[in-house]
Amino acid sequence: DTAVSQTPKYLVTQMGNDKSIKCEQNLGHDTMYWYKQDSKKFLKIMFSYNNKELIINETVPNRFSPKSPDKAHLNLHINSLELGDSAVYFCASSQGGNQETQYFGPGTRLLVL
Amino acid sequence: GENVEQHPSTLSVQEGDSAVIKCTYSDSASNYFPWYKQELGKRPQLIIDIRSNVGEKKDQRIAVTLNKTAKHFSLHITETQPEDSAVYFCAASNRGPFYFGSGTKLNVKP
Lengths: 113, 110
Known about the structure:
By secondary structure, chain A is mainly beta. Chain A has no helices and 11 strands.
């Protein structure tokens, strides 16, 4: 009965490859997010989706493309991976977007070699 | 956009002492201020939050205060225990994504 799940948990790949990370929430929430946590532990918002529609794209390179097939899923596709993309990527969800608690997934640790 | 600053970056206390972590934010429209605890290799988990219409909130050993005029908010942990050791993040939000502070690594020494 995991609330927010992500796959895979670990991802090791070569520079230049394309990879996807999947996120699913079973909380019935309307809003989903992707955050990036770098090696210094800074947590930064990347995207925000509400009911399958992109709300916010925070100056993320267009190599990153989120896709939301339905409001329970928000996947992240990354093209032409670079060394600087190595980080932990967290998906999160909330019921609505204003003053609502966000629940985080377990994270996907991406290492680009 | 919102800019959240958090201090200190590391904090070491003796078990049983209190710990205080402070954050400031830049966007006066921010109206929700959660605090997350992240243990090593784990996801951030909400420990307490406060909304802009409230000045203080307490939950057992944890309390948060908010000063909207000064645009700062603080986390207070009393009677610290070794299991409180983790990285703590403050965040500010106005209708949507969270803008996080840089984190405080709290070490509680037994």
